[in-house]
Automatic annotation (TrEMBL):
Protein's recorded name: ATPase, P-type (Transporting), HAD superfamily, subfamily IC
UniProt superkingdom: Bacteria
Annotated PANTHER family: CATION TRANSPORTING ATPASE, SODIUM/POTASSIUM-TRANSPORTING ATPASE SUBUNIT ALPHA
Subcellular location: Cell membrane
Domain Cation-transporting P-type ATPase N-terminal: 7-80
Keywords for this protein: ATP-binding, Cell membrane, Membrane, Metal-binding, Nucleotide-binding, Translocase, Transmembrane, Transmembrane helix
Pfam families documented for this protein: Cation_ATPase, Cation_ATPase_C, Cation_ATPase_N, E1-E2_ATPase
Chief subcellular location: membrane
GO-annotated molecular function: ATP binding; ATP hydrolysis activity; ATPase-coupled monoatomic cation transmembrane transporter activity; metal ion binding; metal ion transmembrane transporter activity; P-type ion transporter activity
Protein family per UniProt: Belongs to the cation transport ATPase (P-type) (TC 3.A.3) family. Type IIA subfamily.
A single cellular component GO annotation: plasma membrane
GO terms (BP aspect): export from cell; inorganic cation transmembrane transport
TM ranges: 55-78, 84-100, 248-268, 274-300, 688-708, 720-741, 761-784, 790-811, 832-851, 863-881
Length: 890
């Protein structure tokens, strides 16, 4: 194992390369693998794994279960062994069910963590590789670009305008300029080591290459702090609220159970029997698994979202998603495919067309349908040359790598027969979305002359150009000419083309950085198509039906944005009234802008700061805002939004870190899918509550009514436990993963402050429970008068409850729609649970073996038939109540 150099900032690169046995082309893949074993993964601490045993035991760490076990052991001691063992088995079965559920939830969340883990780009064997940041090893060459989180401590090998924010490290919020060419004395303090970049800091500007000199705990950051975790395990508001509700219900049902048990004792039952019975009732009545079920529903929901390519980083975001009222989205790559092809070039007052599709480098440049020689059109030549060289995209192993806009320009240049190898880049000013342009200085190898080449948005370029080229002549750029160029840009944008402007200037020598972008000569425009994603139209429509607004926020030209917006149904008409540019936006007061926001759905030429303002204003107006972003500067807006959504493909590490959700495919339709899942989760938790609480309440009602009417004990402790811990478990879980109702995306967003217990839900629970009791109490009475046997009448009531649970579960699949408006059998898990419930009931009632343990006796076919018919018949009055309640309660 090579020892890591203690003061890499004081060594020359040659020394370091030798020490670490590596080079500028990086390690071999095999060597990197070996080093990963020697030095360990590049992370600070491994997350402690929850042991399955601990998880299993945690299922029983519940006061009520505890009391139940005590009660069971007492009854064991006084000689009721069978009863005690059966109770133990039921509790065990319930524990296993809970364990499986939580185990799966944990696994889903762990998988998610993996997906959201940070990545890094390294050079190995001369190739750029994207790898998980934890696999970076000493000796790797790390590629740094604006928006990256530095993955390990590096000694810089190359730095181009590299500025790094070391605030988490030094507390100093002004970015530090880095310089790879320095060699510093060993005693240089950390903040002054300008030839180094440290793990945990952020690249704000420029780019660079660094030689990894320390990873994981050996990094400077590792020595002082903890790295940010990928996925935060945070309780969601819903989980917190339900934990409180669960506790209250627990206390309440304990009181009810105690009172009921006291009644029983007064009526001559033994106190031990009643103690056990009361505790069973309390255990059964409280959905103490409430928070656990919510966690499970959330976990299953987020893993479903992950399958639909939305990776959730913070669980609370899932709940908020369901309440989203407005989605602010990027255009390029999110609404469009981000597969650009240059179609039109305007230079020297002539409009050229360029043929060929995609990234194929075969194609021709036509003028009025005839091929042209670009060398006869210096303006066209320069336009293509700037596109070719003022460009960070590259061809690697026959594949284009880089920003699709730049790839398109590179392809256009190659189609024209230009050769990038004839030039070398000597300086550059990188692109950023505030300036909306980038520049390079190149040296033409053949004649040694220097050229400044700049590309960017038209507005941005006109501000720094003083002349324009037409054929081989240069003219001053006057207002009239500027207007003509702007008109041409508008015309191209009107056809949904993304338009870029190009300019250049010849210089004697390499100018200093702030001397580059001035006095340029405008040479032309290139317009590229970026087809809309076909699925987005449908997704936008879905949003509108679901009461969600879609707002496009783009750095692109207003016309291009409006045309695409109209194409996708984001704006109803292609009228300027529906779009606003950054310039117009800046002249509006907050109040005026809020008014505009009611109607305008396209914001163009916007910079990240405007995004932040829009989020804030929308939130002030009571909106729940989901906002997408990708760049370094998007972090504040992503954080300010209720749900920050980062692009998985084009997004920077910084944007991903600031966000709640990462879109693996950058696709707008995925956001809508996530909203749908968010709504589904919430809906399902409510279905689960409706089922369990109305059913449990009805049980209490029947038991108490039985007492009050002076009847025998309607159900024994074992019956109660069996129903609630065994047969009701599976259907309740099945409701937790219920498929979305047909009206899910036709309803307006749920107000975020609205909890689970809406007035409507409480009314439904109340009405259903009374109705169930009304159906089942006579079963017990009639069963007793028909047989004069307590155990017989208990068995029919017991069976009646199980059958009724089936009906209640199907009815609970929607609190909004009547059962005939949805397919009641759409949930296959529920159907399976029902089969299990019925089969197990037949078994424990009809098999003599089980009769003894579960306090049952066989009953005739007639009774089976009556109970089934009763459960089926329950559906009708229940649905009528549903309709009535939905009319009076919201
Ligand atoms: P969006 O993603 O919403 O289209 P961007 O911030 O990526 O917005 O781009 C805004 C504008 O900046 C583009 O319309 C274009 O004019 C310009 N631009 C984009 N990419 C580059 C680049 N690589 N070099 C120079 N200018 C660019
Ligand atoms: Mg962009």
């Amino acid at each position: 194992m090579t020892k890591l150099p203690p003061n890499p900032h004081s060594l020359t690169l040659e020394e370091l390369f030798k020490l670490l046995e590596t080079s500028i082309t990086g390690l071999s893949v095999a060597e990197a693998k070996k080093r990963l074993d020697t030095y360990g993964p590049n992370e600070l601490e491994e997350a402690p794994k929850k042991s399955p045993l601990k998880l299993f035991l945690a299922q029983f760490a519940n006061v009520l279960i505890f009391i139940l076990l005590i009660a069971a052991s007492i009854s064991f001691l006084v000689g009721d062994e069978i009863e005690a063992v059966v109770i133990l088995l039921i509790v065990l079965a319930c524990g296993v069910l809970g364990f499986i559920q939580e185990w799966k939830a944990d696994k889903a969340l762990a998988a998610l963590k993996e997906m959201a883990a940070p990545e890094a780009i390294v050079i190995r064997e001369g190739k750029h590789l994207k790898i998980p940041a934890r696999e970076v090893v000493p000796g790797d060459i790390l590629v740094l670009a604006a928006g990256d989180k530095v993955a390990a401590d590096v000694r810089l090998v190359e730095s181009i305008n590299l500025k790094i924010d070391e605030a988490p490290f030094t507390g100093e919020s002004v970015p530090v300029s880095k310089d790879a060419s320095l060699v510093l004395p060993p005693e240089t303090p950390l903040p002054d080591r300008r030839n180094m970049a440290f793990a945990g800091t952020t690249v704000i500007n420029g780019r660079g290459l660094g030689l990894v000199v320390a990873t994981g705990k050996a990094t400077e950051f590792g020595k002082i702090a903890h790295m940010l975790k990928g996925v935060e395990e945070e309780k969601t508001p819903l989980e917190k609220r339900l934990a409180v509700i669960g506790r209250w219900l627990g206390v309440l049902s304990l009181i009810v159970a105690a009172v009921a048990a006291a009644f029983g004792i007064m009526r001559g039952h033994s106190w031990l029997e009643m103690f056990l019975w009361g505790v069973s009732l309390a255990v059964a009545a409280v959905p103490e698994s409430l928070p656990a079920v919510v966690t499970a529903a959330l976990a299953i929901g987020v893993s479903r979202m992950a399958k639909r390519r939305a990776i959730v980083k913070r669980l609370p975001a899932v709940e908020t998603l369901g309440s989203t009222t407005v989605i602010c989205t990027d255009k390029t790559g999110t609404l469009t495919k981000n597969e650009m092809t240059v179609k039109k070039i305007w230079a020297g007052d002539k409009l050229f067309e360029i043929t060929g599709t995609g990234y194929e480098t075969k194609g021709q440049i036509l003028y009025k349908g005839k091929p042209v020689d670009i060398f006869h059109h210096p303006d066209l030549y320069h336009t293509l040359l700037v596109g070719l060289l003022c460009n960070d995209a590259r061809l690697e192993d026959g594949k284009f790598i880089g920003d699709p806009t730049e790839i398109a320009l590179l392809v256009a240049g190659l189609k024209a027969g230009l050769n990038p190898e004839a030039f070398e880049r000597v300086a550059e000013v990188p692109f950023d979305s505030d300036r909306k342009r980038m520049s390079v200085v190149v040296r033409e190898k053949a004649n040694g002359r220097y050229l400044i080449l700049t590309k960017g948005s038209l507005e941005s370029l006109l501000g720094i150009s003083s002349h324009y080229q037409k054929d081989d002549k240069i003219f001053p750029l006057n207002a009239q000419e500027k207007q003509k160029i702007a008109q041409m840009t508008d015309a191209m944008a009107d056809e949904a083309l993304r338009v870029m402007a190009f300019a250049f200037r010849e210089v004697e020598s390499v100018p200093s950085e702030n001397e580059i972008e001035r006095d340029l000569i405008f040479c032309g425009l290139q317009g590229m198509i970026d087809p809309p994603r076909p699925e987005v139209r449908e997704a936008v429509k879905k949003c509108h039906e679901a009461g969600i607004r879609v707002i496009m926020i783009t750095g692109d030209h207003a016309k291009t944005a409006l045309t695409i917006g109209y194409d996708l149904g984001i704006v109803p008409e292609k009228r300027p009234a529906f779009a606003l540019t950054a310039r117009e936006l800046e002249n509006l007061s907050d109040h005026e802008l809020k008014e505009k926001l009611k109607k305008v759905s396209v914001f163009a030429r916007v910079s990240p700061a405007h995004k932040l303002r829009l989020v804030k204003l929308l939130k002030e107006d009571g909106h729940i805002v989901a906002m997408t972003g990708d760049g370094v500067n998007d972090a504040p807006a992503l954080k300010a939004a209720d749900i920050g959504i980062a692009m998985g493909i084009t997004g920077t590490q910084v944007a991903k870190e600031a966000s709640d959700i990462i879109l693996a495919d950058d696709n707008f339709a995925t956001i809508v899918a996530a909203v749908e899942e968010g709504r589904t989760i919430f809906d399902n938790i409510k279905k689960y509550m409706l089922f369990l609480l109305s059913f449990n309440l009805s049980e209490i009602l029947v038991l108490i009514a039985g007492f009050l009417k002076g009847l025998a004990l309607p159900l024994t402790a074992i019956h109660i436990l069996w129903i609630n811990l065994v047969t009701n478990g599976p259907p309740a879980l099945a409701l937790g993963v219920d498929p979305p109702a047909p009206d899910l995306m036709k309803r307006p967003p749920r107000p975020p402050q609205e909890g689970v217990f809406t007035r409507r839900l409480v009314a439904l629970i109340g009405a259903f429970s009374v109705l169930i009791a009304f159906f089942l109490l006579p079963v017990f009475v009639y069963g007793f008068s028909a047989s004069q046997s307590v155990i017989f009448s208990q068995t029919v009531l017991f069976t009646g409850f199980v059958f009724m649970a089936v009906a209640v579960a199907y009815v609970s699949r929607s609190e909004y729609l009547n059962i005939w408006r949805y397919n009641p059998l759409a949930n296959k898990w529920l159907n399976l649970s029902v089969l299990f419930m019925v089969a197990s009931q037949i078994m424990i009632v009809q098999c003599p073996f089980f009769n003894k343990y579960l306090h049952t006796v066989p009953i005739s076919e007639k009774w089976w038939f009556i109970l089934a018919a009763l459960a089926l018949f329950y559906i009708f009055p229940a649905e009528i109540l549903k309709s009535l309640i939905s009319r009076f309660f919201r």
